[in-house]
Amino acid sequence: MAASSRGSSSGRSLISLTTLSRVLVICIFLASLQSFVLLSKISSESGQKNSEAVVDNDANNNNNNNNNMPTRTLFTPEEFRAGRIENYINLPTVYNPDRDKIVQELMERPVPEPTETLLHKAPTPPSGNVILGLASYPTFKDGWLKLVGSLRTNGYEGHIIVGVHPEILQDERDYLDKMGVTYYAVETVNCSATILNGVSQTENRVRAKCSRGLENLKLEWGRFEMARRWLRACDTCTGWSMVIDTRDIFFQKDPFASLGDADDAQQDLMFVEEVAQYTNTLPDKIRAINIGASGRYKHHTIPCYGSDLVTAEKIIDRPMLCSGTVIGSKNGTHRFLSVLVDEFHNNNHKRAIQCKSPHTTDQWTMNYLYYRGDFGFPQQTKTLPWGTGPVLTVGKPCASQIFNETTKKLEHVHSLKDMMVFDANDLILNPHEKKGSPTYVAPTLHQWDRCYKWINPWFNKHKKLFSRDDEVKWVKES
User: What confidence category does residue 197 fall into, taking pLDDT thresholds of 50, 70 and 90?
Assistant: First the structure.
């Protein structure tokens, strides 16, 4: 009996030790698993937070591509303020790798021939660069001098391709012929009923009428499709392109001279910034505007796209981009025009009248597309800070709201001059370029009509900058 009791006690002890060991192993395993899950969660949340600091992924993006999302800084105004302009970037807030494929498909679609009548084809100029714009005014002699005359006087030897009034005056035709300008007759017609249904009426001609052959695009939008077709039809337009507003632009120098060869450029599409808070040369913040803080931007985009897509708060510190001076290589400009025109057509097919002209305009749509990354190929695209580069947009510096000390109210004024900088020859300078820079003298002045009280006397003083009347040499020799 005694022996049997000792054996039973020993067996129970062995079983207890075995069970205890197993319990300890299980406990250690569960503790390790809990730690692993907790660390994974922390790591995941940390990674998500870091990614959102530089990239906005939204419902329109393919979630399967998130692992390929580049983690990088998108906007560096501090580099600009430190004088390192070459390091400045202003990239879209949304990155979707699939967008490049969509844009490429848009670019590969056949481009129709121009529907406008070609009135005059200029001889092939020495340069393959091109200026493109619509100027179909009944009379525009002074405008031709400011636009064409300033280009030819100040060394530009590339293409100039414009749309003109079908009954353009003969003396204007003679002038354009001498200056080596190619021009198409743009006939204004009523728009298609499909894009007029429900939209408000306007006296603004470019937002009320269309052109023959492009009845489904208001003139303000159709001009970009004209430019797309004219560019594709120009076999010798192989260099830089600039799509411009024609009424309020003036050139002090060749606008492309500082850009080098278009084929060798790292970026093939460049948008011009208007004055923003980070480029403002004055302490008065009212004299500059950021796109996300603009009530007009939100007014013209949110009713069409919705606040979830516009996300103005995410570009509250970003600059506004100007649709009246867009620069690119032939391929880059074709990309810009293909995307923008496609969006115009898409908006015209929507039921919401807020997506159509005149409720929204080209500039607001273009800014929406840029900051959403819809032009694709972000590494081939850049924006040029105000006060630098080929174009100086003077509209906001000249026309703004200022505080009236007498009335104690904000008042809208024009022809301000306190942000303008001049050299010893009275030429207008880029305020952020250093002396010796090829764009120290601003090659292009845009929106100068907002400055008319002081700039009209300036034009009268400097007629030699645009009053060329003799036939261009290579036209004469052709």
Answer: confident
Q: Helix H segments across 68-161?
A: 77-81, 97-107, 141-144, 150-153
How do residues 332-344 score in pLDDT, each as one tens digit?
999 999 999 999 9
259-281 mean pLDDT: 97
Q: Quote the pTM value.
A: 0.85
Report the chain's mean pLDDT, rounded to a whole number: 88
**Which residue in 410, 418, 413, 412 sits closest to 275, CA to CA?**
418
CB 99, CB 69: distance < 8 Å? no
Strand partners, 107: none
Q: How far is residue 231's CA from residue 241's CA, in Å, rounded to a whole number?
A: 9
DSSP string of 384-409, one letter each residue:
EPTTSTTEEE-HHHHSEEEEETTTTE
Q: What is the 3-state secondary structure (H, E, C) of the chain?
A: CHHHHHHHHHHHHHHHHHHHHHHHHHHHHHHHHHHHHHHHHHHHHHHHHHHHCCCCCCCCCCHHHHHHCCCCCCECHHHHHCCCHHHCCECCCCCCHHHHHHHHHHHCCCCCCCCCEEEECCCCCCCCCEEEEECCCCCCHHHHHHHHHHHHHCCCCCEEEEEECCCCCHHHHHHHHHCCCEEEECCEECCCHHHCCCCCCCCCHHHCCEECCECCCCHHHHHHHHHHHHHHHCCCCCCEEEEECCCCEEECCCCCCCCCCHHHCCCCEEEEECCCCCCCCCCCHHHCCEHHHCHHHHHHHHHHHCHHHHCHHHHCCCECEEEEEEEEEHHHHHHHHHHHHHHHHHHHCCCCHHHCCCCCCHHHHHHHHHHCCCCCCHHHEEEECCCCCCEEECHHHHCEEEEECCCCEEEEECCCCCCCCECCCCCEECCCCCCCCCCCECCEEECHHHHHHHHHHHHHHCHHHCCCCCCCHHHHCC
Asked if 238 contacts 330 with a C-beta cutoff of 8 angstroms, the reply is yes
Q: Give pLDDT tens digits for 40-85.
A: 333 333 333 333 334 544 434 433 333 344 557 999 999 999 999 9
